[in-house]
Specification:
Elements lengths: L1 E3 L16 E7 L5 E7 L5 E8 L7 E5 L7 E5 L6 E11 L6 E3 L1 E7 L6 E4 L13 E4 L9 E9 L6 E10 L5 E5 L12 E5 L14 E2 L17 E2 L2 E2 L1
Antiparallel strand pairs: 1-8, 2-7, 3-6, 3-9, 4-5, 4-7, 10-11, 12-13, 14-15, 16-18, 17-18
Amino acid sequence: MAVPREGSKRNFASKWSSTKAANAGAVPEGATRLVANLENATAPDFDLFVGKGEVTEANVEASSASGGSAESVDIALGDDDAGDWWILVQNWDASSPGGTDTVDLEHAVVSGDAGNLRAEGPASQPAGDPFTIRAFWDESRMRAGQTWYGSLTLSAAPGGTSIGTIPVTVNRLQDDVSKSVDVNQAAPGDTLTYTVEVQPNVTPEDLTYTFTDQLPNGTTYVEGSGPEGAMVEDGVLI
């Protein structure tokens, strides 16, 4: 989005003038989280404001004004937060006097259950004792470099009293497993050698990989050429 420089830094109310960029959205019932971030700013100082209802100073629910442009707001939502929300971006210090600068606004509302995030923890726990919960995500649509937002809601027992909601942010890194082939073109009868490379494990625990691969059309698997126990079922190497 393109945002002109703020005309009056002294008057807070001027933020709500037509020279500012606002992005409104509806938050549904049951939503647990609202996130807004500014990225790729061309001005040295953008500010970020998030609110509900009418766009006024009194309705600001959260803001981020750090003196730079890497602003971020993360709001935990409750039962009374459904409704129309707005996101407002202010160009506090433009790159040139009276100039207009650009910035990318990223925002997300977490609601419902997409089935791509789960948690594991102890089946029971004495009151007052600390415990560990592990979160696992599985989302084939997520690409390297993307960030997805979610949340986990805990309860004392299935269907019981809610303990609270934990925000979960997943930053998708580059794939740690890659496959390459030794030639770009092949003729009938040629043998192709595929190499699977696994990057070093940078996590504090052992990792177990399960590899499956669809054989390219027109090729067959050379028995014994893969790892011990490798086999082909319906054209898929497992």
